[in-house]
Amino acid sequence: MTGGRAHPTRNIFDLVTLMIVVYDDARDLSPEKRRVMELCRGGALSVAEIAAHLRLPVSVTKVLLSDLVDSGHITTRAGAPQAEAPDHQLLQEVLDGLRARL
Fold first, then answer.
1. 90: buried, middle or exposed (CB in 10 Å: 19+, 13-18, 0-12)?
2. Distance CA 86, CA 83 (A)
3. Which of 19, 49, 78, 79 is the most exposed place for a label (fewest CB within 10 A)?
């Protein structure tokens, strides 16, 4: 499935990296890679979601995804950035204002 490789050719994937199909020709791909393409046709999926659908370890999935990125079949997009923690002082002022109105 991975050609004996244990690591992807690129280390650009984390669990929430999104995969998007850009070249939709899967004729010369292995069955596993064709399945990845089928999954991603419906919209962007994360590495974790793809691994779960394939029922494969994340490490194996990353190798497959890396091959597909190298061949130009899919591209990556960073997942949504983590939200910054709200300012505690601002939240307290909002709470005080709501309490004053009620």
1. exposed
2. 9
3. 78
Q: Whole-angstrom distance between the N-terminal and C-terminal Cα of the chain?
A: 63
pLDDT at 74: 92
* Helix 47-54 vs helix 31-41: crossing angle, to nearest 10: 130
Please state the pTM of the whole predicted model. 0.69
Backbone angles phi, psi at 18, to 5 degrees: -95, 140
Point out the residues of the chain with pLDDT beneath 70.
1-11, 79-83
Q: In this structure, what are the phi and psi dihedrals at residue 6, rounded to the nearest 5 degrees?
A: -105, -10
How many of the other CB atoms lie within 10 Å of CB of 78? 10
